[in-house]
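fyi for ur records
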Amino acid sequence: MVSIGELAQRTGTTPRMLRHWEANGLLPPADVDPATGRRSYDPAQAGRVLTIVALRANGFGLDAIRDLLDARTDHAKLRAVLDERRSTLAASIARDNASLRRLDRRIASLDREHDEIATTLRLGPLPPLTGPGLRTTVSHESEIRAAVRALLTQIATPPDAEVALVFDGTTDPRVIAVTAVSEAARTTVVTVPGAPRAASVRLAQRPVDLGDTWTALDAALLPRGLAATGPYRQILHPRGTTTLATPSGPIADAI
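which gave:
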């Protein structure tokens, strides 16, 4: 017989974990001293402990492990336990694969845009923007995507219409103003001020993650001693290309 400490040491577990498994009916000791409560185990129980460890590492819960180790568990019950775990793993793999595909698209987009920004970056004045449009506000950058979808739905422009989106967090630090402007819209006229100095780039495709693209543009301005000062503009051209533009100035002025 071995003590709970010896069994834990042999199996790479802890006495606390072994007591937890005992409490859940997975590892009854071979003997318990009625006077001291000292637990003793058959050395062969190390195999059961290692089996529990392996099953836990494979994601099985304690109830499922109890069924898997119970000699009375019939084929149907055993199959149900394994099928349930398989379904959980398959769903997890599907989610991970979807996340991986999204990440791959983001990486590919970032690499492509890095090259396009380097070759298409232009510095010059940014004209005012005036035309039919709508404006809303959001409290956080994470809300911008949904706000843009809502504005584009409301202005109801045809698929081949050019749309200008403006993101302004400079006027009120508590909110970000999101504006959509399109000559094809039938709304009231809105105006966005221009700037004497700005940076603009032309991208062959719309960014997968606009935040990544602005970060890449900021990085391209640094060697020139410049920084974006906002508001930011995104022009959605009919054939899927995109122009990004932002007022810019010396880094010292932007700090």
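The CA atoms of residues 151 and 225 lie 35 Å apart. thats all i got for now
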